[in-house]
Specification:
The protein has 163 residues and is an alpha+beta fold. The protein is built from 5 helices and 6 strands. It has a 4-stranded antiparallel sheet with strand order 2-3-1-6, with helices on both faces. A two-stranded antiparallel ribbon has the order 4-5. Helix 3 packs antiparallel against helix 4. This is Ribonuclease P/MRP protein subunit POP5.
Length: 163
Amino acid sequence: AALSCRYVLCEVVSEDPRCRQCIEDRAVGLAVRDAVGRVHGDYGLACCSISFTVKYLNAYTGTVLLRCRKDSYRLLCSALPFVRQLESRNQRYPCSLNTLHVGGTIRTCQKFLIQYNRRQLLMLLQNCTNEEERRCVQKSLLSCSLTEEQSQSGDEEDDDGPE
């Protein structure tokens, strides 16, 4: 049987615009492992490290998808608020990770992200000051959907939902 996993969808929140350039798999992975080690010690780090990986990352939107074993996702999630910075090329950028969703498959996280982005865009739409801005946001809203190609992603492991 396939190892039961959980996917944790997060966003990187930072005041520093330069932080975006260091949002990369390695930096995020190290920051998360460091936080888990500080909060839960060696035992927690060992539990979380089994099959832990950064599955998806979008530096432009600051979206990160982490995968871990189902039996250790609570340990992982409880340590995420303690991520304080990302480090890249000996530069440190203060930031935090905001957990958006925990799902049993990548697909459920994708669906959540689409709804989440749609809500964010709708809030932007309400704050538009002119017709040009409004048109741009509406165009973005229309593009918020899964394409056929994305929906065929073969990474469905188990979908028994979060506990």
